[in-house]
Each structure stands twice: as C-alpha cells, then as structure tokens.
Amino acid sequence: MTDSTLGSRVRARRQRLGLTLKDLASKTNLSVPYLSDIERSTVANPTLETITSLAEALGATVADLLGGHAGVADGPPLSVSLQRFVRSDDFARRVQRLAEIADRPAQDVRQEVINFLATAPKRASGDLTTEDWRRLLTYYASLLQDP
Hints:
mainly alpha; 434 Repressor (Amino-terminal Domain); 0% strand; globular
C-alpha cells in the first residue's frame, strides 16, 4: 500500500521510527497541533521550510515526503508495543552496542533493527511484550555477529 498524501507519509515514517508527535515537534520546532493537522491533511499547503524540517527529522528527503520515491523508513506502522520498545533506553543501548560491533552509524543500524523486528515472523496472535522484542533483538545480534 502506498501513502497517497504528505500527511500519511509523515505519519507512516514517524510511526516507523517509533516517534510520538511530541518527539517530532521537539525535533522540528513545530507544534504538536500543527503536526497533527499535517498528518490529517488539514493543512492545505505547508511551506517548503516546514517540509524540509520534517524530512530532516524523519531521515527522509523532501521528495520522499512529497511522494517522489520510496525511502528507507517506508513501511507499515509499528505495533504499539514495538513503538514503545524502540523508544526505550534499553533499545537505544542495545542498538549502540550493535553499531559498535558492526562499525556502522547507529542510526543506520537502528533502522535495520526496526525493520527486522517489524517483519520478523511471530507466532503470537496478539501484540508482543517487551521481553519478546528483547529476544528478537538478541537473535538479530547473533545474526550480526555470526560470520
């Protein structure tokens, strides 16, 4: 499914990164109500400066947000429990360790881990617990360390 509006693309990227509207507001210096309006497509024509600020905060290009092409952070929104987990200090510490092991930028590793967790096969029918996400992350780490 492709996102058809600027607002739906912003929301999908924000959720994919595990950010709240408040987090995004902090990164962009835009208000939460204004961001909410953008996501709901009630803002008719945000400025290029606003779109550029959003793109930078979301690790995207202006073209990504305007629908020019798909970017790294595209994909279905994350489950509530996974959003909560990726915002945790525990997740940040684990990603930092993995980035050091892989000798790669933490943000790149973070996005790969989120993509892995979001698409990993799950046997549970409901939302997973924090411990379930930790186990999947430990599995990912073992794959990264195995030559």
